[in-house]
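Bench notes, afternoon.
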Amino acid sequence: MRAEELLETLTDDELKNKANGCFIQAENTNLYLKLRPEEKQGALAEANFYLSALAWRSDARVARRDFWMEVGVMALIGIEILLSLIGLWVGYQQGKILEKQTTALIHMDTSTAATAKTLTSLQSAVESMNATLQMQLDALKKSAAETARTAKAGETSASTASQALHVSERHSGQAFRFRTQAKVRFQRAAEFRRAGKVRPRSRKPS
């Protein structure tokens, strides 16, 4: 059997048992079982072979363990690098978003300031308009009062004129009647003179 096949078929415990058997056989002091020096050397060599096989297996396991540990470490380093790149990309995107938000906030502040200025101007304009309307309202009230006084004075003047006209019409009617009566009397007197009669003396109208 080849050494590779022997090492592949035997377990660690079997290799330890074979090595212990070789040591026992080499150290046996029984007169009948005592080995010659060359046989003892061969037994020790065989025990050394089994121990070397155990050491080789242990070294192989350690090497595999170290290999996979190194693979794991490299994988972790790769994952860390990948996460770092992702973090950088996310940070860059967040920086762009933050820059946009900052720009929007600056524009919003500017727009808010302009709106506040516009509102202040509108408030000033409204206050000025209210003052103007109040002045116009006061002027209208004064004008209405003047108009009312003028209308009242006109009514008084119209009443006075109406009374004066009534008195004038009454005096005019009396004068007209007096003139008519005088004219009639004068005509009668003229007729009496022409007729040679004496005109009776009339009384003065009361």
